[in-house]
Amino acid sequence: MRSPELLYQLYERRLVAGLDRERVPRHVGVILDGNRRWARAVGTPTVHGHRRGADKITELLHWSEEAGVEVVTLWMLSTDNLKRDAGEVADLLDIIAKAVETLADSGRWSLRVVGSLDLLPDAIADRLRAAQARSESVPGMQVNVAIGYGGRDEIADAVRSLLRERGAAGQSLQDVAAALSVDDIADHLYTKGQPDPDLVIRTSGEQRLGGFLLWQSVHSEYYFCEAYWPDFRRVDFLRALRDYAQRERRLGR
Predict the structure, then answer these.
(1) pLDDT per residue over 69-105, tens digit each?
(2) What are the boundaries of the signal sequence (predicted)?
(3) Reduced to 3 DSSP states, what percent helix, strand and coil does the chain have, rounded to the nearest 5?
(4) Which residues are within 8 A (CB) of 55 and not within 5 positions of it... i.e. 6 or more apart?
(5) 45-62 burial, b if ≥16 CB within 10 A, otherwise e?
(6) Which of 55, 81, 126, 231 is catalytic?
(7) Which of 7, 37, 94, 27 is nearest to 231 (CA)?
(8) Is 33 a catalytic residue?
(9) Taken in order 245, 238, 105, 73, is the CA torsion positive or negative?
(10) Phi, psi of 108 (to 5 degrees)
(11) Is 188 helix (H, G, I), strand (E, B) or coil?
(12) Tell me: domain 23-150+196-243, CATH 3.40.1180.10, correct?
């Protein structure tokens, strides 16, 4: 009788062999959900769940790179998460900062921190900015780390940035309003210059976006996985890619 581990390996190889390389999404967004519930399920402190979740990130990026994905956006901390217990938030911010520093120090991926860093403690924000700076010249896969991120906040920030830019150029509010286009706002988003996400994956069984990439995901395909983020496996990722490849993308048409 074959062991469960061997059967898993055979199934994983089958998924890899069947992957349509011509239909791999360029940009994958991932909502890393379920760390706290995973910790409760296994009877460990919440902070342990956050650490296990952070450890999973590098694995996901390797899987994405192997599949040919060009951009990955990881939602690591929402603006709503900042309203949790102060002790938990402090632990989580340190775990996130260490995870981002580890990604930067690997020299493998180009990082972009997206979110309202002014909402974070100065020391954490400085660590994140420094990690981003260390990885800017890396030619590898682009990795966005969404920290202190909210979709509505991003759109509001984009509009404010656009108004400041046009005001500095001497344009009146009336002139800006008369000429404002969708592309103008898109050019001021945190992800400016990148393709919109083709596929958005959410773990933990929750079937909602929660404000993730609200503007950019208008034509995205969604995949909801039952596994908590710390339990997310390569076969779960490959199933999401397979499901995406089998869909007929209409892009709003």
Answers:
(1) 999 999 999 999 999 999 999 999 999 999 999 999 9
(2) none
(3) 55, 15, 30
(4) 230
(5) ebbebbbbbbebbeebbe
(6) 81
(7) 37
(8) yes
(9) positive
(10) -105, -30
(11) coil
(12) yes
- 115-147 pLDDT, tens per residue? 999 999 999 999 999 999 999 999 989 999 999
- At 3, list the tokens: 């062991």
CA distance readout (Å), 22 to 12, 111, 141, 231 = 19, 25, 18, 28
Please state the residue numbers annotated as binding site. Answer: 33-38, 50, 78-80, 84, 202, 221
pLDDT value of position 250: 73
Q: Which residues are annotated as a binding site for Mg(2+)?
A: 33, 221
**Residue 35 and residue 51 in contact, taking contact as beta carbons nearer than 8 Å:** no
Is the CB of residue 138 less than 8 Å from the CB of residue 108?
yes
Domain ranges (residues) in the chain: 23-150+196-243
pTM of the predicted structure, to 2 decimals:
0.94
DSSP β-ladder status, 110-114 and 199-202: unpaired
**Residue 81 falls in the annotated catalytic set:** yes
Amino acid at 13: R
Type and span of the H or E element at 136: none
Q: In whole angstroms, how far apart are CA 201 and each of 39, 112, 208, 251?
A: 21, 19, 10, 18
Q: Indicate which residue of 20, 33, 105, 175 is catalytic.
A: 33
